[in-house]
Amino acid sequence: MANYTAADIKALRERTGAGMMDVKKALDEANGDADKAMELIRIKGLKGATKREGRSTAEGLVAAAVENGVGVMVEINCETDFVAKAAPFIDFSNKVLATAISSGVSDVEALLAVDVDGKPMSEVVIETGALLGEKVAIRRLARVEGATVDAYLHKTSKDLPAQVGVLFAVDGDNQEVAHDVAVHIAAMSPTVLSRDEIAAETVESERRIAAETAQAEGKPEAAMTKIVEGRLTGFFKEMVLVDQAFAKDSKKSVGAVLEEAGVKAVAFARFRVGA
């Protein structure tokens, strides 16, 4: 019998994020040598990289940081929540974020081409997947700049890394309100910053749907314009950040809160793992 214990299995699972049977097989083959077993797991993973290409990656985490008025956020995906909370996956995600910050790239394609310790990030992704025994992917990258930028990360489960991330920038010096609005964005999921970011065709389509719905409901013709515009306003309040009711004080809009604070919204980005 190989010379290892249940504690050794647990420790190697935490190091690699691999399944229990894969860890036991590797320890058996390595006669209990944890470092050799880890190498075997990695080699096996590289051989299986092609088979993993078509797999779904619905789990993972969001990581973000702000440096010198620039916020950077990445979404890194894997296949299972077990791997999402494994130390190697978290370490990899931190490396991806650090590389995105230092390189200054603004999209995933460019990030995958960045050199990391003598190899492109795309190879690091494959090697990490080999180590973990799952498909790993860098899904999204966002950069947000402003006089004040807040990065907010939210855990939807206490046992997992952050699943929701937000970057929010304003044009003045007010970290408190920037943070409050970032938390609001995480909770309320706006789609755009302001109304002018919504295509005119979309607005007209919503207006037509509102009119047809009101007619089908038998609303009086005299009140039709007011009803339609009211429903269109409701659409804007759902989609547009500055029009939304502020989560901390629903009597005020986000735009009003920012105006009272003496700043204007510049940009935001919101990621939710798998969404």
TrEMBL record:
This is Elongation factor Ts. It is found in: Cytoplasm. GO terms for cellular component: cytoplasm. Keywords: Cytoplasm, Elongation factor, Protein biosynthesis. The keyword S-adenosyl-L-methionine does not apply. Residues 80-83 are annotated as: Involved in Mg(2+) ion dislocation from EF-Tu. It comes from Arthrobacter psychrochitiniphilus. The keyword Protein biosynthesis applies. Belongs to the EF-Ts family. Residues 71-274 form the Translation elongation factor EFTs/EF1B dimerisation domain. The lineage of its organism: Bacteria, Bacillati, Actinomycetota, Actinomycetes, Micrococcales.
